[in-house]
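Deliverable D5.2: sample structural annotation.
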Amino acid sequence: MKLKTLLISVFLLGTVSVASAQNESYGKVYASFNLAGVSLKGGGVVSSVDIAKATNGNDNVSMNGFNVGLLKGINLTKSAPLFLEIGGEVNYLAGSEQMVDFKMLNFQVPVNLTYRIPVCDGFAIAPYAGLNFKVNILGLVGSSGVNYSLFSDDDVALVEKYLGVKNYDPQTANRFQLGMNAGVNFVIAKKLCIGYRFQPDFIDYYKYDFIVDKYPASLSLATSSHSISIGYIF
């Protein structure tokens, strides 16, 4: 009887130890391929052109890029594989539309809640969702080798003058953006991680209210991206 009790105790202890190991906090390094879109929206009439109709949501600039990142997964409860993931990543995007080139570089801080669902030995599915804090470092728009920074007052003023804007009040792009993360990771052999992420922004990349020929108008650029990543868990 004592031997049976001892064996049961050892088995239960081993089970708890394995579950605890699966729920331990972790680190992850990863790299992603990104497919992003920049949608152009506007309102008002400029030179007899209805900006709202001209930018009806179909004027999207497709951009490709990559990012590399590092994050920490913090276990929130030892009884379940629920984690808070906090990290940092560098993201670069580039694209062109009608001979106009776009380049963007930013630093992102994702903050997500994720739950690992074990499927079989060595394989788990981990859906997640959360917020993304983005700091834009570089934003260039150019053509024929001449680039203008959307974060430079002087460059924006030149673009305004070219467009015929009369108030000459340069409005630069937003350095800070808030967005969301939603996706799923597939954890293989507890070390390899392959994932998908959808990332729209709540705050526009660029929002510009201006006046041409005494008529108010507006123009905005909003970003969203899809990415496929591969990472190593340690």
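Annotation notes: The longest strand covers residues 26-46. Residues 55 and 112 are 33 Å apart (CA to CA).
The annotation will be released with the project's public dataset once the embargo ends.
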